[in-house]
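Board notes (copied after class):
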Amino acid sequence: MCCAPSFERLSCHVTPQHIAPYKTLHNPADIRRRDLHIGDTVTVYKAGDIIPRVQAAVARLRPAGATPVPLPEACPRCGGEINTAQERWRCAKGTSCALPALIEYAAGREMLDIDGLGKTYVAALVDSGDVTDVADLFSLTLDQLTVASGSSRRAVKLAEQIEAAKARPLSRVFCALGVLGTGRSMSRRIARHFATMEAIRRADAAEMQDVEGIGPEKARVIVEQVAALAPVIDKLIAAGVSLHEPETSATASAGGPLDGKVVVVTGKMAGPLEGFGRTEMNALIEKAGGRAGSGVSARTSVLVAAPSASGKPSSKAVKAADLGVEVLTPEAFAEMVADYLP
């Protein structure tokens, strides 16, 4: 196998437990294309902090009687039908297959930020039938919350948190919907590009491709998902949830100090950025016109690196120096984007 010089090659044995950690092995077509068998020794490569990828099986080391990696015939969670229309297979039931997990995810700090609505209360609300989708959270009564939490005092606090969640920006509400092919960063790009949920709903696949990072296939999936979520979105509107983004991409990024730059962040932020996690830093980068990256590469423009406790530079800082990438302390970066700090 031929790899780029900077790539690290590894080898491992393929077992059912090993399938999940590798990106390529989430894809049934890729498993078959690489002709992987249980017990195979495989070559794996990775670059920087990118998740390792299985490259190929070492056929001469394949044990006798090895069988091809089995593909599921039913959803392992609910036992229902699998949608095999796309390369990544998914449960045909969509989000309803894993409703408690979706609701818990939506209520998380980086989405709707409904403090106190954890796994136990979510399970109770779903089991009772009071919550069948994300929008149902905003129509819960004090009685329903009291039954779920077992306390009228906790119910009042939850009701206050849910009411506050109605004012979250569109990017966080959109992310809470769990649209396939999107995550926190992509949800921010979509929200800033279209500014309102109404505009997102009107967009066709061609218009969706105008958002950075969305190609033809992903655009089609997102448009289809948004259309399928119409009843949920209508319920959000009826509940008075804010479905607009305070700053669009046109006003937030055009001419910003990071315009056209890819920025990678490593280490614990300090100074004006103290307490900023990955989500907050990515949002700040995009707000100032840049694009958040995960690993240092030749495309990286800036590395924001907090000093380590040992005083030694991190692996990302070393790689940035080798590539001639500009390295800034959190304090220097904060000064650069001072106009965009909350």
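Comment from the instructor: The first strand starts at residue 8 and ends at 13. The mean pLDDT is 84.
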